Amino acid sequence: MTAPALEVRELKKHFPVQKGLLKRTVAHVKAVDGVSFAIRPGETLCLVGESGCGKSTVAKMALRLIEPSGGAILLDGKDVTGLEAKAMRPYRRRIQMVFQDPYASLNPRMTAGRIVGEPLENFEDYSTKVREERVARLFEKVGLRPDAMRRYAFEFSGGQRQRLGIARALALEPAVIVADEPVSALDVSVQAQVLNLLMDLQEEFGLSYLFVSHDLGVVEHIGHTIAVMYLGKIVEIAPKETIFADPQHPYTKALISAAPLPDPRAKRERIVIQGDVPSPMNPPPGCAFHTRCPFAVDRCKVETPALLTKPDGRQVACHLVA
After folding, report:
1. Are strands 44-48 and 233-239 parallel, antiparallel or unpaired?
2. 5 contacts 210 by C-beta, under 8 angstroms
3. CA–CA separation, 306 vs 173, rounded Å?
4. Most buried among 147, 154, 157, 194, using CB within 10 Å?
5. pLDDT, tens digit, 9 for 90 and up, residues 146-179
6. How far is CA 47 from CA 10, 38, 56, 103, 239, in A?
7. 169 in helix, strand or coil?
């Protein structure tokens, strides 16, 4: 079997909380606390969960934009967690990112062609002519006209700017693209166009996506595998069809029950979660979800459930799931 395009093992990120003149560390915010998953070539794994659960932190650690507190990151089977900047450089081109905000992620002082061609300047020794030809082809791949290379970012619409971000991510022919809420800042009418573009590019180039989103409608459209996060941990991983047809973890059930249905006449049992998300600086003992779970028993309050593989292949971290 080929190695996963991207794999993370027991990934952790604990941010120190410092106080006083001497900046003493008095606590840690456990933003990510032991996350593991693998993405096969050509697969899309979607990280879902409510705001503050650690999705974007996982994405940034996968790129090593944030250094993990523990665990391992593997690209094409190679552990890149502890590599120095020079040794990491060849792997940088293997994994690229599409950012959430297409307005903030593009340099307003640079032309669109320069923005998309900048990775080529950093990693390749092409002549100006060859580089411009490559950039023109990238513009065509993402549905933009090559004559737009001379324009600046502010001259493009939101959807066009995100296409520029996708073209920039494709410039170095990566194996993995990390997409952090790439359509959440776009109009609904444009979201489907960008999602379909990402799916077409995946089919053409065999890309793997780590796709971060809170929108279950988007996830159902683009995902192959869904990983549900809660308070820094993954509570359920399963193929998309399995998750939406038969969610097992109580938190997954609540998320899916809250998603709107395309048919207004369709009915779905609504599961309402009471209370607020606990603080990641002081998570509750046992299962992190037990303070809000309507099915919690005494065991849930003292024993942390492991993420176990079930007979159907899904992974669930819940004492109540046989």
Report:
1. unpaired
2. no
3. 37
4. 194
5. 999 999 999 999 999 999 999 999 999 999 999 9
6. 15, 12, 9, 23, 12
7. helix
Place of tokens 């065509």: 140
The whole-number average pLDDT for the span 269-295 is 87
pLDDT at 322: 65
What residue type is 257 in one-letter code? S
CA within 13 Å, CB half, 313: 8
Per-residue CA distances from 95 to 166, 176, 210 (Å): 13, 5, 10
Question: Other CB atoms closer than 10 Å to residue 249's CB: what's the count?
Answer: 26
DSSP H or E stretch at residue 36: strand 24-39
Domain residue ranges in the chain: 6-94+174-316
| Neighbouring C-beta atoms of residue 86, cutoff 10 Å | 7
Six-digit token string for 102? 């297409």
Question: Phi and psi for 38 in degrees, rounded to 5?
Answer: -135, 140
Which residue in 205, 206, 199 sits closest to 183, CA to CA? 199
Supply the angle between the helices 158-170 and 112-123 in degrees, to the nearest 10: 20
pTM, to two decimals? 0.92
Per-residue pLDDT of 203-255, as tens digits, reads 999 999 999 998 888 999 999 999 999 999 999 999 999 999 999 999 999 99
Joined together, the tokens standing for residue 279 give: 């603080």
The residues that bridge with 298 in the sheet, in sequence order, are: none
Q: What are phi and psi of 206, to 5 degrees?
A: 70, 35
Q: Are 112 and 148 in contact (CB under 8 A)?
A: yes
When pLDDT is averaged across residues 15-19 and rounded to a whole number, the result is 91
Which DSSP state fits 149? G
Residue type, 62: A
Rounded Cα–Cα distance for residues 283 and 211 (Å): 26
Closest CA to 316 of 222, 241, 252: 252
Q: If you ran DSSP here, which 8-state letter would residue 150 be given?
A: G
